[in-house]
Predict the structure.
Amino acid sequence: MGLTLIHRSDGFGKGGPSDCRMELALAADGAIELRCGFTELGQNLVGTIQSLGAQHLGCAADAIRPVLGDTRLTPDSGPVAASRATTLVWRALQEAAQPWQQALLLAAARLLPDIPLRCGAWGLESAAGLCLSYADLARASGEQAPCISIDLRAEDPEGNAHDTHFVFGACAAIARVRVDTWSGMVQVQRLVMCTALGPVASAQGYLGQMEGGALMGLAMGTQEELACLDGHYQARNLDGYLIPTLADAPAMQVLAIENLPEGDPIGPRGAGEISVNLALPAVANALAAALQHPITQLPMTPERVIALLEAGAESSKP
């Protein structure tokens, strides 16, 4: 068994391109669009935006349409690098919630001036129920449909030292590893991850990031090795450089601690990179315990495992 504890920064350090712009707009068909320059890389950012939008804006998740990476429509939000997108979307929607609802109510008041309204899942509602759908409001408003800009400044507090980070997440992991002392083969049988990254915005995206990243980290410890000779990498294709598949994946369990400290201004931390960080040392520590020898070189190929077993056998001789 091997244990690891990880504390990892999110976003960019002070002085980096940390500012971000987004737009929230009612489209012509009634969809609520969050327009940002981020890109969907398989991290389920679309689902995250819809989930966070429903949480902060009070509408249905399906009423929100993320518009990503379209240079004709989206402002410069900066890159999705450094696991920053989820945190920035959370901050943007939290900041925009009140002015956005006020903009919707103001637009609706021009059409229904004498009816008290509130923002609901699919439109403006009165005490009797749905009164004006978002689609009807968009058609009636035309070019005056609500649209607000959201400008996020760098999240570093005053007095933070230059080039240091302000946003951090924490995780722990335990790996159970089996070593075949005859062949030197290593099998990671089980990996349990406990994450303290704030509220889970998208369960599907969260599990995909944690489990997929962990498998990448495991492979660094057990199989991936890119040999270099005279400045040239020896593998040029995936038939010579084997990456992990589902056949290499252990049983995984992810436990999420979702609470935030009181007054926390950051919200959910990104889960895109910390899972890679936590899996590798957990496996290496488990191997060190199994072989009774510190692990100083990775990956632990069968040849290296046998070498450590033989070294241990020699050192134990009287």
